[in-house]
Specification:
The complex is a heterodimer of chains A (120) and B (106). By secondary structure, chain A is mainly β. In chain A, 0% of the residues lie in helices and 56% in strands. In chain A, strands 2, 4, 5, 6, 9, 10 and 11 form a 7-stranded mixed beta sheet that branches. In chain B, strands 2, 4, 5, 6, 9, 10 and 11 form a 7-stranded mixed beta sheet that branches. Chain B has a 4-stranded antiparallel beta sheet with strand order 1-3-8-7, with no helix packed on it. The chains are: A mainly beta (120), B mainly beta (106).
C-alpha cells in the first residue's frame, strides 16, 4: 500500500532554515509528481509546492517562492522541502502528497505530516 | 488565484441524517474538483475527485455533484465516523482549497 512518511520538523528561529523529508513506499515513486501542502495550527490547507516525476519542473505558491526549494531523489524514494528565511507564518504541519491524474492532477495519498514551528 | 468558498462553516447533524456541504469557485474549474475528509490529528483523506467520482474504498453514502463553479458533497446518512472537517479543492488551475466545513454531532 502507498505509504508516505515525513520527518525533519521541529522548532526553528525566525530567519533560519530547515529541511523536511518524505520517504515513499508501496508505489513507483519516480512515476508520480509530488507535492507539499501545509496546514497552520487550527487553519485550513495551503498548497506549497510541486515537483514533476523526474524533478525537472518545480512550481511554488507565491507565499514561499524564492524561499523554499522542493527537490527529490528518486534513487532513495525521497522528497525534500528546503525552507529558508523562515517566518512565524510558516509555522504549520507540512504534508507530502502524491499526485495522480491525467492532464490535471489531484492528491490521492498523504503522509501523516511533520510539524514545523518557527519561534524565537 | 481561484478562490474556493465553502458553506456552511459548521454543520450540526444528527447521526443517520443527511448532510449537504457546498463549495463555490470564484471562476469555472470545470469538473476538476476534489473533496477531502480530515479528522483531528490525521492527514486529509481523498473522498471524491472529478467532482463526482468516489475514491477507492469510499462508502457509497458519500456523493459529489456539480461543475463549473458550484459543487456539493452529500453524505446520505451520517455515521459516527463521518464527523470531521471536509475540504473542497480545485485542481483546474494550480491547487487551492476551501476553508473547510466542520460536520459536528447535533
Amino acid at each position: 500500500q502507498v505509504q508516505l512518511v515525513e520527518s525533519g520538523g521541529g522548532v526553528v528561529q525566525p530567519g533560519r532554515s530547515l529541511r523536511v523529508s518524505c520517504v515513499a513506499s508501496g508505489f513507483t515513486f519516480s512515476g508520480h509528481g509530488m507535492h507539499w501542502v501545509r496546514q497552520a495550527p487550527g487553519k485550513g490547507l495551503e498548497w506549497v509546492a510541486v515537483v514533476s516525476f523526474d524533478g525537472s519542473n518545480k512550481f511554488y505558491a507565491d507565499s514561499v517562492k524564492g524561499r523554499f526549494i522542493i527537490s527529490r531523489d528518486n534513487s532513495k524514494n525521497t522528497l525534500f522541502l528546503q525552507m529558508n528565511s523562515l517566518g512565524t507564518d510558516d509555522t504549520a504541519v507540512y504534508y507530502c502528497a502524491r499526485q495522480v491524474g491525467s492532464g490535471v492532477y489531484y492528491h490521492d495519498s498523504w503522509g501523516q505530516g511533520t510539524l514545523v514551528t518557527v519561534s524565537a | 488565484e481561484i478562490m474556493m468558498t465553502q458553506s456552511p462553516a459548521t454543520l450540526s447533524v444528527s447521526p443517520g441524517e443527511r448532510a449537504t456541504l457546498s463549495c463555490r469557485a470564484s471562476q469555472s474549474v470545470s469538473s476538476n474538483l476534489a473533496w477531502y475528509q480530515q479528522k483531528p490529528g490525521q492527514a486529509p483523506r481523498l473522498l471524491i475527485y472529478a467532482a463526482s467520482t468516489r475514491a477507492t474504498g469510499v462508502p457509497a453514502r458519500f456523493s459529489g455533484s456539480g461543475s463549473g463553479t458550484e459543487f456539493t458533497l452529500t453524505i446520505s446518512s451520517l455515521q459516527s465516523e463521518d464527523f470531521a472537517v471536509y475540504y473542497c479543492q480545485q485542481y483546474n488551475n494550480w491547487w487551492t482549497f476551501g476553508q473547510g466545513t466542520k460536520v459536528e454531532i447535533k
